[in-house]
Amino acid sequence: MISRRSFIGFLGGFSALAVSKAAFAYDIGELLGRKKSEREMKDFPFKLTDAEWRERLTPEQYRIMRAEGTEPTCSSPLDKEKRAGLYHCAGCGQKLFSNNNKFESGTGWPSFWQPLTPEAIGTSTDYKIGVARTEVHCSNCGSHLGHVFEDGPPPTGLRYCINGVALKFFPDQAS
Ligand SMILES: [Zn+2]
């Protein structure tokens, strides 16, 4: 029969093991993690530390905007948003897209045929799925937004396929 003291000691040892295992998993992820993307190598005017980004964003936003993840299709209410207004970066507030350039792509992600201004966004090449794709990010804070494809409608023929969680919508006051 084990004494209370040794049982507590056992629990303490167990939680210490759990913590060190978690730390190990985290470190190994860092060590074996992908090398920095082209976007992450860039320098942006709006800078925060990784800890500050984690504080500022929801875990889902962090996964997508800082680690170049993708939200599930049809998950964003902004996909169906049709009101007049502007879409700001959820990371830094920079104005990125307008409803005037939004279209229904049928993909389940908010889609635009051009950004609000060419300067609002930056692009990089990513090979995450094994083929080259043009990644799109906020030019001010470098947060990943989505990708741009060449199968969009006129006049540009471009389709900016954007994660809704990376955007904050501000409807026009008049609408
Ligand atoms: Zn931004």
Describe this entry's structure for a reader.
It is built from 4 helices and 9 strands, in the order ααααβββββββββ. It is an alpha+beta fold and 175 residues long. The protein has 2 domains: 1-33; 38-171, Metal Binding Protein, Guanine Nucleotide Exchange Factor, Chain A. The strands form 2 sheets. A 6-stranded antiparallel sheet has the order 3-4-8-7-6-5. A 3-stranded antiparallel sheet has the order 2-1-9, with no helix packed on it. The protein is globular and about 40 Å long. Bound molecules: zinc ion. Residues 89, 91-92, 94, 138, 140-141, 143 line the site of zinc ion (ZN).
Q: CATH top level of the largest domain? A: Mainly Beta
Please provide the count of β strands: 9
Helix tally equals: 4
CATH architecture heading of the largest domain:
Beta Complex
Strand proportion: 15-25%
Low-confidence residue ranges: 7-31
| CATH topology category name of the largest domain | Metal Binding Protein, Guanine Nucleotide Exchange Factor, Chain A
Helix percent reads 25-40%
What shape does the CA trace take?
globular
Give the strand order, joined by hyphens, for the main sheet: 3-4-8-7-6-5
CATH superfamily of the largest domain: Peptide methionine sulfoxide reductase
Order of helices and strands: HHHHEEEEEEEEE
Q: Specify the biggest β-sheet.
A: 6 strands, antiparallel
